[in-house]
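pasting for ref. prot 1 ->
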Amino acid sequence: MFILSFVLEDWAIHELVPSPRRRTSAVVLVASSYVTWTYQTHTFSNAVETLVVLWSIVMIQRIIDNRYRSSLLSSALLGSLIAFGVFNRITFPAFLLPPFVYLLPHFLQKPFCLFATASTFLLTSSLAITIDTSFYSPSGSSIVQLLRTNPIITPLNSIRYNASAANLSLHGLHPPYQHLVASLPLLLGPALLLLYHIRRPTLSILSAFSATFLLSLIPHQEPRFLLPAVPLVLSSVRLPNSAVSKRYWFGTWFVFNAVLGALMGIYHQGGVVPAQLWVGQQQQARGTGVTEMFWWRTYSPPMWLLGGQEVVTVDLMGMNASGMMERLTLAMGNCEEQEPRSVGLVAPTSSVELDIWMEGMRQELLFELLWITRRHVNLDDLDLEADGIRGTMSRVVGRRGLAIWKISRVCADSQ
C-alpha cells in the first residue's frame, strides 16, 4: 500500500495540478501530511478509496480537456474506476458528484464516451458481484445458480445496513457538524486557513466540499471517511505570498503533522493489537479463566493474533453503555438459575460510564483489572456536543488507555 500511494497518489497530483510551481508545493504538502504516512500506508478501504477518487477525477479531467477527440479509453477506465470505488466504499459517489456534473455536457455531445463508461461500469460491477457471491456463499453451490437466485451485491447491502439508525447507533451517532468542527481540522489543521486563498474552485476542491456536505448528512461520522479530501484540498490551496507568513505557516504545519503523526500513528487505537496478543498468550497459558471476550469502543480485534486459541470474541463496536452492560450480564447468567461465569471486557479507560463500577458505587458486578496500557487513545469517542472541546480532550487524552477486566457477578451467597 505504501508503494501504491507513493506512486499513484503523486502521479495523480501531477496530472491534476497543471502549473509546475504549484505542482511542486502540492506534492510537498501531500507528502508531509501525517495522513499520507499513517492512513495511506495501510490497507484501509478509505486509503484505497482515496486513490480511486483521485484517479477518477484525473480521468474526468482528461475527458473534459480533450475537446476534439472522443477519449474512449479514458471513458472506459472511468467506468471501471467508478464501479471499483462503489464496491469498495458506498461513500465513494459523494466525492464524484460535482466532477460528474461537469462531465455531462461531454457525454451529451459524444454519446460513445457515455456508452464506454456505462459498459465498463457494468462489466466491472458484474465481476465484483460474481466474486462476492462466490466468496460469501456456501462451498459446493453452483455459482450460476447463486447469481440467478441470491446474488450478493455489496453496495446494496451496505445501503440497507447504513439506512438503519439502530445499526448506526452501534458505531456511534454524531451531530451533523461533526465533520466540519472535528474531522476536517483533525485531518488538515493549518491547511484549512489556506482555503481563503483559493481564487477559482477546481474539480478537486469541489469534490472535497461536496463529499464533506453529503457525508455530514449521515449520523455516523469518522475522520477517516474524509481521507480523500486531504490530497484534494492540499493540491488546490495556495501557500501565503509573504515569505514571513510562509515560514510561520510551514512551521505550524510541520508541528501539527509531527504531533498528529504520533497521535494517529502510535496512540489512536494503539492498544488493540497488544491487547489481543495478551489475550492469546493468556489463553494459551490458561491464565485468566475467561473464554469470552467483549470488545467495546475499539477497532474490530484482529482474530488471527489469537494464534488459534479458542476465545469467543464479541465486537460490541460503539454500542451505548446500557446495551453493553445488558450483553455482559446476559452472558454471565444469574445467581438464581445457574452458576454465574466470568467474562472479559476490553474497553478504553476514557469510558466514564464504567466509573460507577470502578469506584464501588454499584456492587452487583466485580471488575478485576487484568491488563492495561496507556498507549491508546480513542478518537472515535469524541462527544463535542455533550462535553465541549475542553471536556472531550480532557477525557479522551487525559484518561487515555485500554484495559482488560475480568467481570464476575456478585451473588448473595458469595459475599
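and prot 2 ->
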Amino acid sequence: MTSSAAFDPFSQSFTLLQEDGTQFNVTIPELDDFILYSLQICINYAAQLGASIVLLVMLALLTKPEKRTSPIFILNSISLALNILRNILQCLYFTGPFNEAYTYFAGDFSRVPTSAYAISITATLFTFLLLISIEISLCLQVQVVCTTLRELYRQIIFALSTAVALVAIGFRLALLVLNSQSTLSLTYLQPLDWLTSASNITTTISICWFCTVFVTKMGFALQQRRKLGIRRFGPMQILFIVGCQTLIIPVIFSILEYTTQIPSMDSNILTLVSIFTPLSAMWAASSTGSDKPTSSPNAGHRKFFSWSSSTGDYSNKKSFNGPLSPSYGASTQASTSPLPSPAHDRFLQVGIDLEKQGL
C-alpha cells in the first residue's frame, strides 16, 4: 500500500533499445516536453508562414502596376518570398526525420536522409538572405527620408547605417557557417549559444537604429507641417505610425526570447519587419488613393504634400495628395504670399522621393 501511494504514474519511464541492443530509459515528462516543444515551434513558424503568404498576395493584388518596378516593392516582395520559404523549411524540419522521437532520444541519425540535412541548412541560409534583404530595404528607406538633410549629415547617417547593418549581417553569417557545420557533423557546438544571442541582439539593434532615424525624421516633418497649419491625417502619419510599431514590437519579441519558455520567439523579428514594411506602403497608398481627384488630367502622377502658401491650408481645400503639375513652381512664385515658406520645398521633395520609391 505504501509503495502504491509513492508511485507517480505521470513521471514513470519506459525502456527503449538502441540498434546494438543497449537499453536506455525515457520518462513521460521528457516525452511530453519533446512533443510540446515541437508543437509550439511549429505553431510559431506556421503563423509566420500564413501571415507572410496573405501579405504577399495582398501586395501583389493591391500595388499599382507603375509601382511594381520600384526598389521598395521589389525588396518587400523578395523579403516576403524568402520568409515564406524559410518558414516552410522550418516546419518541414520539425516534422521530418530529425525530429522523430526515437531519433531524438537515442541520438541515432543513421536513417536521416540527405534531404533532411539540406532542408536544415537551406532554412538557415534563407534566414541570412532575408536579413540582407531587410537591411537593404531599411537602408534605402532611411536614405530616401533623409534626402532633405545636409550632405554631411546624410553621409554620417549613411555610414552609421551601413556599419550597423554589416555588423548584424556579419554575426548572422558566422551563425550560418557554424550552424551548418554543426548540422553536418551532428555535433552540438557550445559557441552557438552566445553567437545566436549576439546575432539576435545585433539584428534588433540594427532595426531599432533604422526605425529611430526614420521615425525621428518623419516626426520632425510632421511637427513642421503642424506649424504650417496642416493637420490632416495622411500618408506621412501612416508611415510614422508603422515606423513606431516596427521600432517597438520587434524589440518586445527579442526580449521575450529571454523571458519566456516559448521556443524561437526571436524568429518573429524578421517576419514582423518584412510584414510591416509593405503594410505601411499599402496603407499609405490607399490613403493617397482615397483623396484622388476624379477630374484631374494628370492624376496618375501625384505628390504627397501640396498646400496654399497664401493661406497655409490645403490647395482648393483638397488633400495634400493633389496632382503634380509641371507648372507647380510657377504657380508657387505667382502666389500672393510675399515670402513662401522654405519648408514647403523640403516637404515636397521628401514626398516626391517617397513616391518614387513606392512608399
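Residues 291-353, 355-359 have pLDDT under 50 and may be disordered.
Residues 191-227 form the longest helix (37 residues).
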